Amino acid sequence: MTWSRHGGAFERRGYHHGNLREALVEATLALIAEKGPSAFTVAEAARRAGVSPGAPYRHFRDADALLAEVALRGFERLEAALASAWRDGRPDPVSAFETLGRAYLAFARSEPAYYAAMFETRIAAEDHPPLATASDRAFGLLRQAAERITAFLPPENRPPSLMMALHVWALSHGIASLFCRPDRARRSLPMAPEDLLEAGVLLYLRGLGLAGGPPPAKES
Amino acid sequence: MTWSRHGGAFERRGYHHGNLREALVEATLALIAEKGPSAFTVAEAARRAGVSPGAPYRHFRDADALLAEVALRGFERLEAALASAWRDGRPDPVSAFETLGRAYLAFARSEPAYYAAMFETRIAAEDHPPLATASDRAFGLLRQAAERITAFLPPENRPPSLMMALHVWALSHGIASLFCRPDRARRSLPMAPEDLLEAGVLLYLRGLGLAGGPPPAKES
DNA sequence: TGTACATCAGTGAACGCGCGTTCACTGATGTAC
DNA sequence: TGTACATCAGTGAACGCGCGTTCACTGATGTAC
Fold first, then answer.
1. What distances in angstroms separate CA B165 from CA A92, A130, B68, one per listed residue?
2. For residue B13, which of B21, B5, B24, B25 has the smallest C-alpha distance?
3. What pLDDT is recorded for position A126?
4. A192 CB near a chain B CB, below 8 Å?
5. Residue A159, CA atoms < 13 Å, CB-side half-sphere
6. Can you list the alpha helix ranges (DSSP code H) found in B87-120?
7. Chain A partners of B189 at a C-beta cutoff of 8 Å?
8. Whole-prediction pTM value?
9. Does residue A202 sit at the B interface (CB-CB below 8 Å)?
10. In a domain, B28, yes or no
11. Which residues 46-105 on chain B approach chain A with CB closer than 8 angstroms?
12. Do A132 and A125 contact (CB within 8 A), yes or no?
């Protein structure tokens, strides 16, 4: 099974793969995207990477380590996506915050396999310290954003920024979990998940005393 | 392996089990509670029920059917819990609504195995119509409650009750998923999940123009 | 530029395992008479 | 009350399967000289 080195659809493969670690991560993502996280097996990932079943163990201690690597990268990508959406609060914190929320959902929608690897697998963050760290960093961003937002409120009416961050995270995650899965199409929605989240965050901010004005028009 | 029929810790078992269907459901719940939904197997459930590996197939077509039965019962129990919390909007819709939210979380916390069977398994509701129906009924309750709440608002400021129900459901589910799992203890919280949800719903209602007054005091 | 060699990424066969499911069977239960 | 029998819930052995992981090995790569 040696494919031509420079021609055809299959680029690779002499004896050495050359980039097996990456190929396994990609195969795992594809597998999860197609059949859900419970369908992941090392053997199948190896098969898709075009490699014998023992090969992955040169790169990952065991099956969970591969899964954890995928989840880790997912958190890193999420953090990057959130950071670039937040843009340090520009043009203004409130609208940047809306963008942040949309970015969260966009990530869940456009990278469902990463999302599933992060939140729907058997691996526990506490068993994989880098995972916990990456998750904390992503959440930290949300927390900082909340800090900036609540700073607009007079101190006596200012809610803990941690609480606000948790609320928004939970709402985003809830919407993503319930409505953004392509495989098991959940309850159909009268509006896009992003709009649902934006409306929810807007109402929440109004509840805090921010982003005043009349209630938003009916969306649907 | 015939245990005494009336003595000792083990009550059951002549040749017939007598209540195997129930025993399998319970074994499945215990299994999920202990090791997570991915650890469920028919063989292990049969073992825990004290029965040979083929026996479950007298009661369930296959492994998924057993899992779907557990999820179905979960939705029915959730619906019952929500209905009894809502109490048809008494004493008043807004405070009954708070109680409803707490009941949702209480369910996720006190019945984590049911909750996992409902939301974290491979089974898809569309493949099991009764499951979809039960899920719709539970959500319908939330929707009715939202209807009653939004009725307090003047029509020109009244948001779609469906949207409100979706927001609250997503927030509740998000909090439950992120913070109410006993097995994989997630991020630690500065407050109880129930209080986090209550504060969130309160702020949301204020954003809608209900439950006015000053912002709640800091919770933590 | 050429050669020897260390390194190490992959091979492929093998292992033991537990699973889902089937099937001919057995024995308990309860109904008809 | 007693007996024959249909029913059907469980048995237990068996099947084929795919998995995770190991291991002695092979062959490609790149470095030292």
1. 30, 37, 25
2. B5
3. 86
4. no
5. 26
6. 93-110, 112-119
7. 166
8. 0.89
9. yes
10. yes
11. none
12. yes
Number of A to B CB contacts under 8 A, please give it: 144
pLDDT tens digit sequence for B164-208: 999 999 999 999 999 987 655 566 788 999 999 999 999 999 999
Q: How far is the CA of B58 from the C1' of D8 (A)?
A: 9
* Residue A215 maps to a domain: no
Q: How far is the CA of B63 from the C1' of D8 (A)?
A: 21
- Dig out the tokens for B59 from the structure: 């009661």
Is there a single domain that holds both residue A71 and residue A23?
A: no
Domain that holds residue A191: 63-207
Q: What is the mean pLDDT of residues A189-199?
A: 93
Considering the domain boundaries, does residue A212 fall inside one?
Answer: no
- When pLDDT is cut at 50, 70 and 90, the band that residue B10 belongs to is very low
Taking CA atoms, B72 is separated from B20, B22, B36, B123, in Å, by 18, 13, 18, 11
pLDDT tens digits along A40-54: 999 999 999 999 999
List the single residue in A with minimal CA-CA distance to B204: A204
Beta strand extents in chain B (DSSP E only): none
B19 and B67 within one domain: no
